[in-house]
Design a protein that fits this description.
Helix 1 runs antiparallel to helix 2 and helix 2 runs antiparallel to helix 3. The radius of gyration is 15 Å and the shape is globular. With 145 residues, it is α+β, with helices and mostly antiparallel strands. This is Histidine kinase/HSP90-like ATPase domain-containing protein.
Length: 145
């Protein structure tokens, strides 16, 4: 399958999709979440989005691991025209997009998400707990067809 092809085997009645994973914000969390998202994308016929989704997921979960600790709540939703991945953590600080200098080790994550995702943003937790979520969206080929 090429990036320009839309899989025919995914029926419209399969949408919308929603699934969640909750895990400790450990060093292995970015890999687990990245694998989860790319696997689900493949299962629902959006495997062509896997590379971009893996990068964005990894960056958001890595930020949760580095800066918040506690638990990471990843929510995956998809419909025929878009995929949204939201990463919630218990960190009180809202992340901000900044330009990293060449000598900085960190500070590039949201810049990468901004460059790769079709849209992204920050939201408060819907659970009422003191937390925030960072999300990104990728448009499917059906959105541009």
């Amino acid at each position: 399958m090429t990036v320009d092809s839309v899989p025919d085997h995914v029926e419209p009645f399969w949408f919308p999709h929603s699934c969640t994973i909750l895990l400790p914000a450990a060093a292995i969390a970015p890999k687990i979440c990245r694998d989860f998202v790319t696997t689900v994308l493949g299962l629902i016929g959006f495997g062509y989005l896997a590379e971009r989704a893996a990068l964005c997921t990894s960056e958001l979960v890595t930020n949760a691991h580095r800066y918040a600790g506690g638990l990471v709540h990843l929510q995956f939703t998809a419909d025929r025209t878009r995929v949204r991945v939201s990463v919630y953590d218990s960190g009180p600080e809202r992340p901000r997009l900044r330009l990293a200098t060449d000598d900085q080790v960190g500070g590039r994550g949201l810049g990468l998400v901004d460059a790769v995702a079709d849209d992204w943003g920050i939201t408060d937790s819907r659970s009422g707990l003191p937390s925030k979520g960072v999300w990104f969206e990728l448009h499917t080929l059906r959105a541009v067809a």
